[in-house]
Prior knowledge:
Strand content: 15-25%
Mean pLDDT: 82
Strand order of the largest sheet: 4-3-5-12-6
CATH superfamily of the largest domain: Periplasmic binding protein-like II
Low-confidence stretches: 289-296, 325-330
CATH class of the largest domain: Alpha Beta
Number of helices: 12
Radius of gyration: 29 Å
CATH architecture of the largest domain: 3-Layer(aba) Sandwich
Number of strands: 12
Amino acid sequence: MSDRRHALTPDALTMMDAIGRLGSFAAAARELGKVPSALTYSVRQLEDALDVLLFDRRSGQARLTAAGEELLNEGRRLLAEMDAVANRVKRVATGWESSLTIAVDGVISRLTMFELCEAFYAMCPDESQAGPGTRLRLRTEVLAGTWEALVSGQADLAIGVGSGVSPPQGIELRPLGEMPFVFAVAPHHPLATMAEPISDAELVRHRAVAVADSAHRLSPLTVNLLPGQDVFTVASTQAKIEAQMRCLGCGFLPEPLVREHVNAGRLVTKQVQRGRNPVTLGYAWRTAAAPQPKKAPQGLALGWWLQQLESPATRLALLERHAGLPQRVD
């Protein structure tokens, strides 16, 4: 096994790539600056180490065997990965994080988030490199789960966190905006034709649809559920909307997410006695308690996202744009 590993060097893989592209040992030798006999010797050494025949020499040409084809394909993939690793290491040294995890609450506009991701990947830090090289990871959370992902270190940035809490040390919090909620039911739900405002005594007789909090360690939040009320629990805000349109229950929904459904008549909004004030949301990120030697206190990738979130237009789009044609986010 050790001999095989020592044989599969970048030089050996580059040699295989050259022979495969040019179709002959002589042409590959010229490109690599070697004499043909030295290249032939290197190929035989590689074949001996792997104990396989890489080229069929009976035709007088460098015709790859099945094993040779496999090594050529895998070798090219490994060379590309080596280049990618080298580029990422270089970018980390210049301040770009190797990865950045963003926790996003389910009420935030996915359309706007993906447009921001497109803009991020389209950046070119310098003329020799395409994109910043930072690997993005988006994770969807619900209620306290968004906070938990950030404070537990599973995320570097959280968008859509409740802003009514005091952030712990090492967490910076900024306002995102207000998210209005409406009480909505399907047109054929018994509450759809009931006189308004609807009392709690009437609401408790009807099943509510709730989104499960994604928090595992923090205390999960329960919002607008009445004692003794039947509850149908789903995993996401989108699933809650679908459930209520199917008359599986009732409940409050983010107004921007259901605006199109209300206008189309798929949902009916109703006034209830308990009401619900708009929810103030924010965005938060992890900060270094003390700058580490030889490392920027804030990575360039996180800095780029925070710069986008400083824009009022971007913050509004994250709360409002849940339907319609994509628009550019400046």
